[in-house]
Amino acid sequence: MTAKINVGGVYKDMTDCKVNIGGVWKTITAGWANIGGVWKSMYNSFVRYGKAYFDGSGDYLSLANSADFNFGSGDFCIEATVTPSNVTGERTILALYGYSSNRRSYNMSIRDGQLECRYSINGVLGVGPAGGSISSGNEYHLAFVRYGNTFKSYINGTLVVTLTPTSSALYNNTVDALLIGAIGPNLTGYFNGETTGVRITKGSARYTANFTPPTYFENDTNTVLCMNFGEIIGATTFIDDTGKTVTTVGNVVIVA
Question: Region 200-221: what's the mean pLDDT?
């Protein structure tokens, strides 16, 4: 009988110290699993992708401004897997969006139970209607992509909004930090809930039609941010698999 390992509630075949995840064999050694070239801790026979909890009151993660986070007129994909505890008002998932200083570039938020993804070409005006349906207590994969001149947003792999097309470059914000869990620089719209992963891809839309969401985020070609929150329970410092420094503000913490 083939040995199996429980990964995210699904049993995967194991052989010769490897685990089959999504049809790809990953190396396991000394209580750790190599997922996408990154070693993730294992706990009670689970490969830990982890969950980071944001309490909605001053919690967020910050990464220094980088050319990696400015997309110009190229394709991109911003995605996250979240379980919101509160969907009223604006609950920001990820933003490079200096709204009070006219340095808007892009952001992805939950607004009053819908997915709202916005972009700006001039830093002043943000474009992007909300759509779909998001409720508290349920897990969702959310994605915001640009493919050519078309912008789309997806919930659980299903298209919910096609935004106003443009051939123009997005506003080049070289000042503000990239924030996970808040929108800045005045810091509002705090996310309340859990996230199991966040990824940004520059130069590829990844998803151009409805798709099956990934169970974890690979640090693969064109990835400029990749976080699966595989730290131990109780951790308050976090790793970006692409090597960028992540600063924790407030009480963001890994939970079971």
Answer: 95
